[in-house]
Amino acid sequence: xxxxxxxxxxxxxxxxxxxxxxxxxxxxxxxxxxxxxxxxxxxxxxxxxxxxxxxxxxxxxxxxxxxxxxxxxxxxxxxxxxxxxxxxxxxxxxxxxxxxxxxxxxxxxxxxxxxxxxxxxxxxxxxxxxxxxxxxxxxxxxxxxxxxxxxxxxxxxxxxxxxxxxxxxxxxxxxxxxxxxxxxxxxxxxxxxxxxxxxxxxxxxxxxxxxxxxxxxxxxxxxxxxxxxxxxxxxxxxxxxxxxxxxxxxxxxxxxxxxxxxxxxxxxxxxxxxxxxxxxxxxxxxxxxxxxxxxxxxxxxxxxxxxxxxxxxxxxxxxxxxxxxxxxxxxxxxxxxxxxxxxxxxxxxxxxxxxxxxxxxxxxxxxxxxxxxxxxxxxxxxxxxxxxxxxxxxxxxxxxxxxxxxxxxxxxxxxxxxxxxxxxxxxxxxxxxxxxxxxxxxxxxxxxxxxxxxxxxxxxxxxxxxxxxxxxxxxxxxxxxxxxxxxxxxxxxxxxxxxxxxxxxxxxxxxxxxxxxxxxxxxxxxxxxxxxxxxxxxxxxxxxxxxxxxxx
Amino acid sequence: xxxxxxxxxxxxxxxxxxxxxxxxxxxxxxxxxxxxxxxxxxxxxxxxxxxxxxxxxxxxxxxxxxxxxxxxxxxxxxxxxxxxxxxxxxxxxxxxxxxxxxxxxxxxxxxxxxxxxxxxxxxxxxxxxxxxxxxxxxxxxxxxxxxxxxxxxxxxxxxxxxxxxxxxxxxxxxxxxxxxxxxxxxxxxxxxxxxxxxxxxxxxxxxxxxxxxxxxxxxxxxxxxxxxxxxxxxxxxxxxxxxxxxxxxxxxxxxxxxxxxxxxxxxxxxxxxxxxxxxxxxxxxxxxxxxxxxxxxxxxxxxxxxxxxxxxxxxxxxxxxxxxxxxxxxxxxxxxxxxxxxxxxxxxxx
Lengths: 552, 350
Ligand SMILES: [Zn+2]
Ligand SMILES: [Zn+2]
Hints:
Chain A is an alpha+beta fold. Chain A has helices at 2-13, 17-30, 33-43, 54-65, 69-79, 82-89, 103-114, 119-131, 135-145, 155-166, 170-176, 185-193, 196-202, 293-301, 307-312, 335-346, 366-374, 459-471, 528-532, 544-551, and strands spanning 211-212, 226-231, 235-242, 245-250, 274-284, 289-290, 315-325, 328-329, 355-357, 383-388, 402-406, 410-421, 432-440, 447-453, 473-477, 480-483, 488-493, 495-498, 506-509, 512-516. Chain A contains 20 helices and 20 strands. In chain A, helix 1 (2-13) packs across helix 9 (135-145) and helix 3 (33-43) crosses helix 12 (185-193). Chain A is flat and about 100 Å long. Chain A starts with a helix and ends with a helix. The longest helix of chain B is centred in the middle third of the chain and has 17 residues, at 147-163. Chain B starts with 5 loop residues before the first strand and ends in a 6-residue tail after the last helix. One zinc ion binds next to loops of chain B. The site of one zinc ion has 4 residues of chain B, from loops.
């Protein structure tokens, strides 16, 4: 609070606008965002409400100073300001604090708490606070207690200072100071960083999305008009390098820079004014292959990014496209030109190479491409991305200039072993609509859980299963019921990976139920070895349809 | 019975000894507590003052003034009244006057402070029946910080001004405060200039064996990084303009209060006083053991009431220590007259 008290003093005594603006800029540069937010609230006249009446303040101060109340009043006459009188006549602080305790802490942990206390507690808390404060701190504190903290500056001075700090137009700043807001670090961040200059620095382009290829690939006409790349399963992102700063946006419009500190290093070789469209992938640099998507989720979900986490789950960006080059928006250029520039920029990369150029796949005919497409699983890719080589990046948009040719999903038949009430909207809590599904660990062996699924069935089917569950419960585990393993369901999924965390040793990503196999007995359901042979588990070029055949 | 001390229109008078203490009208015999102008006036037939303060009083009085020095703790006798002088810790040679007659002891403190000061002998606590104490800063809002903190602040202010290419003009009373500042600041920071009202007094201090750093005359070069010591009255004078650009500060106990500190003519205030603060006053008055307390200067009525409430026979005594020469127009910090009078009149003019 000493830092703030000094600012208050400077503003209180300074005669010139320039000096006030200087003092504010200096203050904001040194203060935390929390302190800055509170200070702005005070500067524009938003003072916390009175916590203590001036009568009580006088009485308690006189008591703490061990002086009669008339002497307090004499002192007040000499000073002319209540908060200052109290600050001056209290006994000196019990200890000298070498470290300044922040303004926001006093407000949030003391003042706001005291406001809700009964009078006797309030008195104790107040005296405790006084005893730890210097005269300068007490003065500000008393002003806050009585709701009288006024600062002698116009809003114009405040916006001028913020303008010097951020480069934002004073009229924009003034506008942002209007309306309801709470003095939080978030508010200050928003006030000073989003949109305009700072925003421009972080400005992300709208992501160009692709349509799914449903018709046969031959309908796309000449193969020479198209380029193909692997379609990866990661987080689609834009990496932005502007004004010596790296920012990373996901296509969910989230700023995820801090989740992936390894990309800070690319500012060393990446030219200023560069925006790359690509996919963040968890990457096993030893085998030079992507890791399971679930690994990437850990990087997103963990609160702190530890060194250990960085080492366990390294990432790279598979770069697809270049949207900005040397500060110029080049989205209107043909794809091949943009990618040529992208390739050349990435040539300067050294060391761990956290950005990798997504190679164009070589093919002369649709038949060539078809065989590449069937190799997707072994590449751990979700399919192929087809792009017209002259297409701009969604400027005016040529319809269907980009196509996603997804690998057909894998399927397996499972036995339902458990059920629990659905957690998704619409379903009554008593309807069993979430199912635990298992396969045989070996033919004639025992059932091992491999998936949980809740989508894909009609309401009528769910009702039927619900009735079955209620009649065939064998055991209860809280809301979960174990049932007789008789119902067989077929699920489909796009990827399957090793997972030591699961008892089965595998993880199936987003399984969907296709149908209930009334025609099948549980003994006819799939086995673990069948799943273990699927591509993605081993990088063998297993043909899915063979497996399907055998399952059927 | 004849009182040992009474207040008259000429000042405090000792009837059995037939002498005055710090009288404000011409008298035959005057005992002078210290050389500040509201205590030491011209025109008396004979002066008695502490030996340490002799040269200062001589400097301020007319050349013809007849002054007898008396070393601290030694006594002299006027008509059977035993008189001795004891350090008051206010400025060089400042004394408390102890008078004793027929077993009655009175002490007139003059101005005093209890904090040590390397430019004068430390305040000596005395026992007495009647104490006449000053009460300039007799409100609990006046609590001084240790002077080491103040000197740190002043040194930092000076160094910061240097960084910004400014001279540092520090205003202080020319007798006492200026020398205390000189002795306490860090002279390695830069050159120090003193106003012509201050420099002769520095010389007297030096001649008395007080160690003061080297000071320059205003005509010497190198002003930019300097500290300039000047009386408040010099602020608006052309003498000051040669040091521009500069930042100004005032060192005084009155600087404790924002409204006094935040005057347009002064950039900064340092709360450094040569008077006792609230706690200093209370503790010395209590320690004297006196049952009767007379109070002069400043907030005397408040202190009197406070002391009465704790069982002492205390009263505020009207004096003229602060009546004359009170001219707010000359006062950059709006101070009560006592602290400012010494600066507003050239030495020895009365
Ligand atoms: Zn004095
Ligand atoms: Zn005086």
